[in-house]
Amino acid sequence: MKIKELADLVGISVRTLHHYDEIGLFKPEKTNASGHRLYFEDDLEVLQQILFYKELGFPLKKIKEIIHSPDFDRQEALELHRKTLLEKSCRISKMLELIEKMIQHSKGEIRMSNKEKFEGFNFSHNPYEQEARERWGDRAVDHSNNKIRNMSKEEQKNLEEEMSFIYRNLADLRHQSPSSQEAQSAIHKWFEWLNTIGDYSLEAFKGLGQLYVDDKRFTKNIDQFGEGLALFMRDAMAVYADNSQQ
């Protein structure tokens, strides 16, 4: 089929397909006598993979690396897509259930404990992993992931609970000065926690704090514990890094 036919079939614009071609992401191998691009069954499968990865939040540059790698296995990729989407569906269901309970709680229809208010959050999942790979490279992220995988289920659960405790504690302190002794003591625990699963220098720690504010996805997620928490953590992390380097 020609490019317009493919665009209509898939539901994306011709301009998008032209862009994919220009960057070497999705380029048909054949053209007709007039020079028009021609797409075949194999091309459709490649495009489907691109759209799967795009839906999961991968940048085009990374998608190009993946699907054009000699080690790329389409069947394995499909299995991974299914697993990822099922996990995402499960998380959304849990969050919807939590929100329904919170609505009932706010109306006074039920009473929830503080622990129950955070049961829908899953800190073992990192929705910003791809962002981290783009900023700090695959090696650093893989090192962190391997640390977590080598932990027992109980150790992972304890790690999640500790993270939740640190966030709640910081949320309670967010109206204080980021340079206060209490704030710095709390942010020190966050620095130690991060280095439990990774290898953060003071400079990287400070940069991560800035990302909490620059990236609205981070801000939205962190501020669920208290409005303004991301900004407070950014400032506290900067003070901590600067003071520790003196």
TrEMBL record:
Record-linked PROSITE patterns: HTH_MERR_2
InterPro entries referenced in this protein's UniProt entry, alphabetically: DNA-bd_dom_put_sf, MerR-type_HTH_dom, MerR_fam, TipA-like_antibiotic-bd, TipAS_dom
HTH merR-type domain location: 1-69
Keyword Lipid metabolism: no
CDD domains on file: HTH_TipAL-Mta
Keyword hit for Transcription regulation: yes
Gene Ontology terms, MF aspect: DNA binding; DNA-binding transcription factor activity
Gene3D superfamilies per record: 1.10.1660.10, Antibiotic binding domain of TipA-like multidrug resistance regulators
Keywords in alphabetical order: Activator, DNA-binding, Transcription, Transcription regulation
Pfam family, one: TipAS
SMART domains: HTH_MERR (SM00422)
PANTHER family recorded: HTH-TYPE TRANSCRIPTIONAL ACTIVATOR MTA, REDOX-CYCLING DRUG-SENSING TRANSCRIPTIONAL ACTIVATOR SOXR
Protein name: DNA-binding transcriptional regulator, MerR family
Organism: Alteribacillus bidgolensis
Lineage of the organism: Bacteria, Bacillati, Bacillota, Bacilli, Bacillales
